Amino acid sequence: MMTETLSLMGNGFISALYPVNILAMIAGVTIGIVIGCLPGLSAAMGVALLLPMTFSMDASTGMIMLGAIYCGAIFGGSISAILIHTPGTPASAATAIEGYQMTLKGQAGKALGTACIASFFGGLLSCISLYFFAPLLGQLAMKFGSPEYFWLSIFGLTIIAGVSSKSMVKGLMSGALGLLLSTIGMDPMQGVKRFMFGQASLYEGINVTCALIGLFSMSQALVLAESKIRQRAKAAKFNDRMLLTKDELKEIAPTIGRSWIIGNLVGILPGAGASIACFMGYNTARQFSKHKELYGHGSYEGVAGSEAANNAVTGGSLIPMLTLGIPGESVTAVLMGGLIIQGLTPGPNLFVGDTAKMTYTFFAGFVLIQFFMLGIGLLGCRGFAQLARLSDAILIPSVTILCVVGSFAIHQNFVDVVIMLIFGVIGWLARKFGLNNAAIVLALILGPIGEKGLRRSLLLSGGDPRILFSTPVCWVLIALCILGILSPVLMDRMTAKTNHD
Amino acid sequence: MKKTDIGVCMVMYGVCAFFLYMTLQLPKAAQIYPLCVNALLAGLTTLHAINMIRSAIREGVTSGLEDFRDFLPSQFFTLFIMIVLYLALMPYIGFYPASFLFMTASLLFLRVKLWQILLAEIALFLLVYFAFTLFLEVRLPEGEIWYMLEAVE
Question: Which among A285, A291, A353, A332 is positioned nearest to A63, based on CA atoms?
Answer without folding.
Answer: A332
